[in-house]
Amino acid sequence: MKVVQTLEALGIRYAIVGSIASSLWGEPRATHDVDLVVMLSTDDLPALQSAFPWPEYYLDEVAASEAIVRRDEFNVLAVDEGVKVDIWPAKDEFDEIQLQRARREEVEGHAAWFSSPEDVILAKLAWAKASGGSERQFRDALRVYEVQRPNLDLGYMGVWVSRLGIDELWQRLLASATVV
């Protein structure tokens, strides 16, 4: 994936998160985009813009710059392929921890940094809460928990469950889980 190769070439820390990461650690499912948490500044934008020129790619440098300042998402779109990458600039301590704890994994012959199973579960539960109870986000978290349970750092997770305010969803996940 060109975005990952570009970030690595530029020395920019990233982690694949979202449904791609939950598919790696849990139950695979179709998704329409790739989500990345990235340690990014506006100083990195000229190099990104050069790596993703129009008309092969769509990357709105003004929107990206504003998103970095606001710590909000922006996109890179491979026009011919229709592949969309959602880039989420690291916005808080949890994002920074996710980047520090990311794991290098090889998928289909390509190595990349992925959010850890613990952080995928936590982020999915936080997204479920933020979206008003998304069942898709909850199911993704549940499947990762069920597959990865023997290897999870539950102490770490307990700290972040509280800090992220997702106690209720965590308790529901524990009650729903069937460990594989």
CATH architecture: 2-Layer Sandwich
Give the termini distance in whole angstroms. Answer: 31 Å
Tally of helical runs: 9
Major β-sheet strand ordering: 1-2-5-4-3
The proportion of strand residues reads 15-25%
- Cα-based radius of gyration, to the nearest Å: 16 Å
Coarse structural class: alpha+beta
CATH topology: Beta Polymerase, domain 2
Low-pLDDT windows of residues: none
Number of strands: 7
How would a textbook summarize the main sheet?
A: 5 strands, mixed
The secondary-structure element order is HEHEHEHEEHEEHHHH
Residues in helices, as a percent range: 40-55%
| Assigned CATH class | Alpha Beta
What is this structure's SSE topology?
Layout (H helix, E strand, L loop, with lengths): L1 H8 L4 E4 H8 L7 E6 L6 H7 L5 E2 L2 H10 L3 E5 L4 E7 L3 H9 L1 E5 L2 E5 L2 H14 L4 H14 L5 H11 L2 H10 L4
Parallel strand pairs: 2-5
Antiparallel strand pairs: 1-2, 3-4, 4-5, 6-7
Helix pairs in contact: 2-6, 2-7, 6-7, 6-8, 7-9
Describe the protein in words.
The chain has 180 residues and is of the alpha+beta class. It has one domain: Beta Polymerase, domain 2 (2-Layer Sandwich), CATH 3.30.460.40. It has 9 helices and 7 strands, in the order αβαβαβαββαββαααα. The strands form 2 sheets. The chain has a 5-stranded mixed β-sheet. A hairpin with a 4-residue loop joins β4 (74-78) and β5 (83-89). It is globular. The mean pLDDT is 95.
